[in-house]
Amino acid sequence: MLSVTYFYREPRKTGVSIEGIFKLVKECLKGKATITDVYCDAGSSRLQSILSARRSSAKINHITGDVNFLAIGLKGKTILTIHDFGFYENPVHSKVVKFIYRMFWFSLPLKRVAIVTVVSEFTRQKLVSYFHFPESRIRVIPDPVKPIFKYSKRVANHTTPVILMMGTGKHKNLDNLIEAAKGINCHIDIIGWPAADELEKIKQYNISYTVYNGLTDAEVYERYIACDILFMASFYEGFGMPIIEAQAVGRAVITSNIGAMKEVGERSAILVDPANPQEIKNAITSLADETLYNKVVAAGRENAARYDYRAIADQYLEVYKELN
């Protein structure tokens, strides 16, 4: 039987999307592959983590994301999963920080890996453009939708639609959602930690809202069920998993007409210019039309079926077989 060692960043209580993805893959591959989990020690330096990972090297290693530098020390054949280039592209970082990050998260690790998996065509193009990594050694394997996010028939709410906002941070675009919601009778559920200026504005505009954070998958599922619309018109995403999750649950999605979000949501969600509040407002109000709403939901459910976790796990299995 195939044997693979998964390498993760340090254990954490929140922001565990990467861990959740590969826990699901591991469960699906029971009986097909033996997978061992290795986590970084939060108290160790980067060098100590590299040396420790080297001691745990196997014939096939899979760095699941966010600790690319481990590849520098690994023996055997290594797969690296890259989720996005958000940190690398962030303009607030100094040239020194960007150089160090480029060197130790990409340039040196990429010399040591056999195959890179990326979660979207959008990310694949960036990998080739920034680092000229051979396209023959790149596999596009999207993130899987977790089985907990199953279809739930919506109770229509036309008078006060609930808009769900997943994640915070300025790139998530809560500011323009607030501008768009001004004057609309709606409620915004926010999962995350909104900035003080965002909360001040939402109160100033007298928009009904609730903030949630630290939710389990089951609690997130409840928020999907309770909403009418998922808003994910971010300025940047490496993939955009909430798009697929909301579609699987049976909710209409408004997302960006750029990058990975367009790739994931095209023809199954309403695409908007994330910098245009009026366009966002028009999208929200258009979904009061029950016929349009149901059409968007039906297209979304069909789209979500492409991201079945069992099919995604099999795609990873094929990569492991290539290197066995």
Features of the shown structure:
globular; 2 domains; six-stranded parallel sheet; 42% helix; alpha/beta; Rossmann fold
Describe the structure.
The longest helix has 16 residues, at 95-110. The strands form two sheets. This protein has a six-stranded parallel beta sheet with strand order 2-1-3-4-5-6. Strand 5 (115-118), helix 5 (121-131) and strand 6 (138-140) form a beta-alpha-beta unit. The protein starts with a strand and ends with a helix. 41% of the residues are buried. The mean pLDDT is 94. The chain has two domains: 2-144 and 308-323, Rossmann fold; 162-307, 3-Layer(aba) Sandwich (Rossmann fold), CATH 3.40.50. Helices cover 42% and strands 18% of the residues. By secondary structure, it is of the alpha/beta class. Helix 1 (17-28) crosses helix 13 (309-323) and helix 6 (174-181) packs across helix 11 (277-286).
Radius of gyration using CA atoms only: 21 Å
Summed up, the domain count is 2
CATH class of the largest domain: Alpha Beta
- Can you count the helices? 13
Give me the strand/helix succession: EHEHEEHHEHEEHEHEHEHEHEHHH
The helicity comes to: 40-55%
What percentage of the residues does DSSP assign to strands (E)? 15-25%
The count of DSSP E runs of length 2 or more, i.e. the number of strands, is 12
User: What is the CATH homology-level superfamily of the largest domain?
Assistant: Glycogen Phosphorylase B
